[in-house]
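Next comes a concrete protein, fold included:
___
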Amino acid sequence: MSRSSGSKEPVGFGTHITAGGIAGAMEALCCQPLDTIKVRMQLSRSGRAAGTKPRGFLATGAMIVKRETPLALYKGLGAVLSGIVPKMATRFASFEAYKEWLADEKTGKTSVGNIFLAGLGAGTTEAVVVVTPMEVVKIRLQAQMHSLADPLETPRYRNAGHAVYTIVREEGISALYRGVTLTAVRQATNQGANFTAYQEIKKLAHRLQPELDGLELPSYQHMGIGLISGAMGPFSNAPIDTIKTRLQKSSFPPSTSALSRISSIATEMWRVEGVSSFYKGITPRVLRVAPGQAIVFAVYERVRGWIERGRGVSEGEWSSE
């Protein structure tokens, strides 16, 4: 989220992180089932050469619930929740730093192009520091097809902590950073597109409603803008996300280079499943990311208001993925 230039007193960093962390946790709780379905769709082997038709997101969700109980839709939630606060802290702090460095020295304002660059930088930073290891663990947990209702059916990874321990012990700590390049590209494009779209649409909303005269937009408009800006990233980088998911699930000999791994996965997808395989899971991903950002905006604004009430901090303008 970014603060608009102006004379208003900025929201404190602690408030920024607390509200962002709570908002992120609420987003994860509400949207994790869609993310699990997306991962299963991306990992499924189907297409022209595979001899099977791709399964839709509703059918995939129904299959998970039938075979593994509804709780299976929340596999990997522990990994997501444990990474939400550091992810938000890294995103917000790095974006503000990059935005300040790129601001005009005379006016203190940051241009649209530089906002996009700051978003790219923030996305890359969070991918390297937090998101990649978190997603490696999450995907390993989500990929396990075991029923949570059967105590005798023991999964390979019992929980997020056990998954980290097992991955590091068997594959080395570098395995937690498998796909870091693709994750960085995905997060960078997500943040660049979302920060820029959010701020530009917000400016348009203010121009179309001159009666607001500098006042904050209503919450439902924040949610609507977040919904639109949140959908930008998934459509722009779906192939990258699908290849990344398969890369983080797969095991390769330690001597295999990252480029060889990516090339091998992409070639097999093209040869066996066709071009449509690169967009597997796009529906649940959009349905997860876009409403997720609406949730983040609504919860963030409400929690921030609770924390800052009585401290005399003015309402500011913020943007987020």
